[in-house]
Amino acid sequence: MQQGKQSICFKQAPQILEAASVVGEKEGQGPLGRFFDEIEKDPMFGTENWEAAESASQKRAAERVLEKAGLTRSQIRYLFAGDLLGQLIATSFGTVDLNIPVMGLYGACSTMGEAMGLAAAFIDSDNADHTLALASSHFASAEKQFRFPLEYGNQRPYSATWTVTGCGAVVLGKRGGVAAVTGMTPGKIVDMGYKDSMNMGAAMAPAAADTIWQHFQDFERRPEDYDQIITGDLGTIGAEILTDFMRNKGYDISDRHMDCGIEIFDSESQDTHAGGSGCGCSAVTFCAFVLPRIRSGQWQRVLFVPTGALLSSTSFNEGNSIPGIAHAVVVESVKAEEK
Amino acid sequence: MQQGKQSICFKQAPQILEAASVVGEKEGQGPLGRFFDEIEKDPMFGTENWEAAESASQKRAAERVLEKAGLTRSQIRYLFAGDLLGQLIATSFGTVDLNIPVMGLYGACSTMGEAMGLAAAFIDSDNADHTLALASSHFASAEKQFRFPLEYGNQRPYSATWTVTGCGAVVLGKRGGVAAVTGMTPGKIVDMGYKDSMNMGAAMAPAAADTIWQHFQDFERRPEDYDQIITGDLGTIGAEILTDFMRNKGYDISDRHMDCGIEIFDSESQDTHAGGSGCGCSAVTFCAFVLPRIRSGQWQRVLFVPTGALLSSTSFNEGNSIPGIAHAVVVESVKAEEK
Fold it and tell me: Which residue, of A68, B24, B153, B270, is most buried by count of CB atoms within 10 Å of its CB?
């Protein structure tokens, strides 16, 4: 059901049945380490190259979430999935064995928001009983795709983020879940002409502010209506810009804003500079850290807003700006009687 | 509404209000030349690089279809769009000025099927009054992305296809349209281990067969229930494999199968070998050639099945196979009383 100018209020409040997270060793050593379902010490995930490693993380997260939900692959009607690599090859090779019809998605690091929103929409409209949403990234496949060969050992400025190695996956259904997806606000592409690919938080913050502001208008809500407003991977610099932008728009979100990129690493001891990033960053943080707090009732309602920086090495080398995008979903606790 | 194992039957039969196609000079010189809305003789579309040229084709197709439908940008609730380039940069820069919330999609050359299906699903579920679906490709940006620099002048085998330069766009709404989208069958990724990137028709044909076969099961239909079964860009070799596969599965589609890649170029006089390809191939052929025949009542019902080859230069260079995917949508004529 249309809500305001840009949002959707789900009539049936589709539920998240289970979630699973598979991460690399560095993520396992971070502050959220004990919450992840699987920590893989081999950066190659037992494969022959970085891209295949990322595909392996998807496959394991998908298998793990199905196991946790007590469902078989054939019970999942549609898969909504994506990653950062050109032509989504991590997803193509990571999900082929699932044998589930798949909608390939690209929203850069906002992909988990797009995937969860679409997966919920298909449940809500009775077009599916169960859907699967997942997104992944891998530090080494992303460096190869977007930046320098690892062997080059380039210096990274303090504004740069560290791409998370990992995949987060959620299974959605109609009832019997641990949290409900009650709404979504798909985002617009926002281009402020920003060009520094080593400060993607600044490139994404205006898009996050645009989506969050529009969400508040559409649902006639304020920051106080949410226990947490959780962005994807703005990092320390982007997070500050977001709270400033929101303050200028009349909303103080500073006491309830959390950024997955800031939470996932300890920047001082882990040398990750401005924080974590990548599709996997918000996906695994949501699955391992956010969802359990909604499930337990510690948080009644959160706004989950993965954020993406829309660039490629081609567009960057051609001197283009880095537009941003952010897709928001509302996730709420399930009251006992609705379970 | 779920239909069979893998499909959706749209309860409200969302309608295509209008369509627009913008192509390059070579496409304009082909057999379908007179049907396109705009033929641009400058391969750069007035921009400075191939990627920006592709973005320009998206922008012009979007503007043209809105003009034809008599709608403004602000009346389009969501945009479903994609292209072939890494990180969808043709789409990011091509649609940013539209200022419409966008779901970035990647299904290789099957993207227009994914986009039209999702755009219809959001109308059908009352989550939008108007949606826009588009997909593009550009010969030169694709050669640069997937193959060799144009200056290299490499030889192309006869099994290779020629990437179409162009963008097709459709606007969907609830009523008052020229055709109805009555169902969709999202496809699975099918990997037969095929590795020849110069024969993508062969790589995609098994996926097309899988989706079409499943579609027949889900809707309990046979080839005779369709005036045309229209694949995306299998080309001459892929088309033959598809009809063989379908015959082996008990269905003869040979007298009503049409492939956009075969239709769009005259392979002899235009030196395009196995046919056209690219997201733009099925998108512009649908908009310019297929839809008018449904609108006029010449065809009552078609199955439109864009086909995608899931590879990147990285996965190809690493020796990986080329999985295929095909997303089907059912498009029917609108009876006078339903208009």
Answer: B24
